[in-house]
Amino acid sequence: MIEPSSRPRLRRGVRLTYDRTRDTDVLLFPEGVLVPNKTAADVLRLCDGVATVAEITAALGEKYTGVRARDVQDILTRLHERRVAEWT
Description:
CATH topology: Arc Repressor Mutant, subunit A
Mean pLDDT: 94
Low-confidence stretches: none
Order of helices and strands: EEEEHHHE
């Protein structure tokens, strides 16, 4: 289970990039492509394996109003289930 002190990162072979054709961010991984919504893409950009979930939540709180740690944890849990994110 992901905790506020967990340090999420993209799994090896996974990268977030901008797709000019689709005019949106895409998450590339060996099994395929995901098109995250803007909020999920913003979360993914902060998943460097150094920042904690609490720090990611605080950074998103500077950009968006009403950011809740539980919502960030839910996004990261779904990404973990899709096998594109992991944490320590």
